[in-house]
Design a protein that fits this description.
The protein is an all-alpha fold. It has nine helices and no strands. It starts with a helix and ends in a 21-residue tail after the last helix.
Length: 216
Amino acid sequence: MKKIMKKVWKIIRIPIYVILALYFGVVIYRIPAAIERSDTAEIVADIHSQKLMMKDVLGENLPPKPNEKLNNSTLEGIDANNNGIRDDVELAIFKLYPDSASIRSGALQYAKAMQMHFRKDITNSKIFVAVLQEKSRGGSCFYQALPSDDVRSAKTNEEMSKAFAVLDIQKEKLYNIIMNTNERKNKEEENYEKYMTSMGDIGGNDCDIDPLVLSN
């Protein structure tokens, strides 16, 4: 019996070793992909967790004016108060909209989302889509905060188009404040070229801070 078992083992051991080697090879091969998926999920969750704070809207922690040369020497620029909004952009928004907390809120949220284009951990489409979803929310919140009497009173498609064109000018002005150098604009374009894919929105409210809780 023992001799038979030894003969059987000699016959089947090589296929067993091959199967085991293949199995462990597949496991080892898939480990980096599993780690990447885990890292991506964490980064996406972090992006969606970055919310505008009321103290930022009210200007309770405004940063000092940054050195322009130093601020523009990197894509990220200077964020002295560490709220995810570049300091020169934050100060410009308060200068543009000193009397409207609701417009400032929408503008700051949009700026905070746009700043995410400069994250160094944008390495795949899922992460980039998360950035675009926050950008979409911020842009929509900004539109909602802008005076829109012309939009509400528009009776024709032409009047509606003209009303939205006025809002687009305000958004373009804000965009140019945020993307104020060719390097920053090029980085945004690079992200689109490398990682753009189909996407949907994430649902829920567009505004991090409900405009109804703001006094003006």
